[in-house]
Amino acid sequence: MPFQRHHLALAISALLAAGPAAAQSSAAQDESAATLDAVTVTGTHIKGAQLSGVGPVSVVDAETIARSGATSVESLLQRLPASAGFAGNQGNAYWTGNGYGTTQVNLRGIGINRTLVLLNGRRIVNGGTGANSSVDLNVVPVAIIERIEVLKDGASAIYGADAVAGVVNIITKRGLEGAELSLRYGKTFQGDGADQAADLVWGTTSERGSLMAALNYSEGKAVNMASRAPCGLGEVNGELQCVGSSATIGGRALLADGRMVNFNQEPGGDGDFYEPYASRHNYNGNPTLNAVNPIKRTSFSVFGDLALNDSVDLFTELMFTNRRSNQLATAGSVGQYRPIRIAADHPTNPTGQDLTLVRRRLEEAGPREFYQDVDTWRVVAGLDGHFGNGWNWSAAINYGRNTGIDGSTNVANLDRVDQTLDTALCSDAPGAAIPCGDYLGYGDLTPAVIDYIMFTTRDSGGNEQRSFTANVSGQPFELPAGWMGFAAGVELRTDRGWRDPDILTQLGIANSNAQQRIDGEYDAREAFAEVSVPLLEGRPGAELLTFNAALRYSDYDLFGGDTNYKLGLDWQATPALKVRATYATAFRIPNIPELFGGVSEGNLTTTDPCSGWSGADPSSNIYRNCQADGVPAGYTQLGNTVLTRTGGNIELQPEDAKTFTIGTAWTPTFAPGLTLTVDWFDIRIENAIQSVAGSTKLSLCYNSDGLSHPFCSDSNFTRNPVTGELDFLSSQPVNAASERISGLDLGMLYEFAFAGLDATFDLDVSYLDRYDLTPFPGGNTIEYAGRITGGRGSFAKWRSFGSLVLAQGPWSGSWSVQYIGGADDINASPGDIGDHAGSLTYHNLQLQYAVSQAFDIALGVDNLFDKQAPFIQSYTDANTDTMTYDLLGRRWNAKLSYRW
Question: Which of 31, 388, 485, 891 would disulfide-bridge 46, Cβ 3.0–4.6 Å?
Answer without folding.
Answer: 485
